[in-house]
Amino acid sequence: MKLYLFISFFCLSSRLFGQTDPDSTQVTEFTTENVKFKSAGIILSGTIFKPKHPEASLVLVHGSGQEKRMTKMATLLAARGIAVLTYDKRGVGESGGIYAGPEVGTNNIDSANLNLLALDASEACNTLLAHLSGKHGKIGLMGFSQAGWVIPLAAAKNQKIKFMLIFSGPVVSTLEQLRFQFYTQGNSKFWETHTEAEARAHMRNDPDKYKFEPTDPRDALSKLSIPGLWIFGGRDIQAPVGLSIEHLDELKAKGKPYAHQLFPEFGHNTAFSKSPEPVNFAVRWIKTSASQKKRK
Fold this sequence. Notes:
Elements (H helix, E strand, L loop, with lengths): L29 E10 L2 E10 L4 E6 L9 H9 L2 E6 L23 H20 L8 E6 L2 H11 L5 E5 L6 H11 L5 H4 L2 H10 L11 H5 L6 E6 L7 H13 L4 E6 L13 H15 L5
Parallel strand pairs: 3-4, 3-5, 5-6, 6-7, 7-8
Antiparallel strand pairs: 1-2, 2-4
Helix pairs in contact: 2-3, 4-6
């Protein structure tokens, strides 16, 4: 019998809990336009949310799961002056192609699928740029969970991408993440009975349950020079936050323009928590990054 691997990250979908920014008193008007674009031989469907004078522009990249376009998050960002393209993941909703993931018994974190999803994100950026005229700020990628592997791959493929923002994305290899996830077993009280040292020891020593070529985001991140921000929740039981932050600090020490922000009491669903602060922090960072001049 053939074994299939899947990763069971919480599906970071388009649900959002009425986020508001206490620092913002103005809501920007925007228009929407449904679009289709081609990627790796199939047609993807999405929607562009376009303010009249965007301060920045970005593509939303999915987490794991059968994710459709993230209209609520896109609406929030567009109302804050950011142009957004959000699309149905391949094989989901109105997009063509074949979906890979646990629901259909296939491996959604092998290198082939992650690179395919990265191609989709790259083509989405090209599509958004083609629909924007005049000043639109820098274009970037913002994603969730599994996007921690997809976004660095996409940025490495497309030099038009000028920044990246990732919520709860692992900065470890796919196999390391699986060791951590199998260890926590989805236990919401995991961190009440385990230490960071115990989790790291398990990740170093636990034999892999599956054999496949791992993807390590540091391979792409070590070659990129665009600004990046990772937002984590300290009680995450899906991604190893402590080790991910350590890896980012190592890259930053080598001159990479990467930053991270930790919200200690939040879990994996940081972007979609009831608190508005993680998304507010992200918006402020996006606007700052988009307004900065290109580094020499």
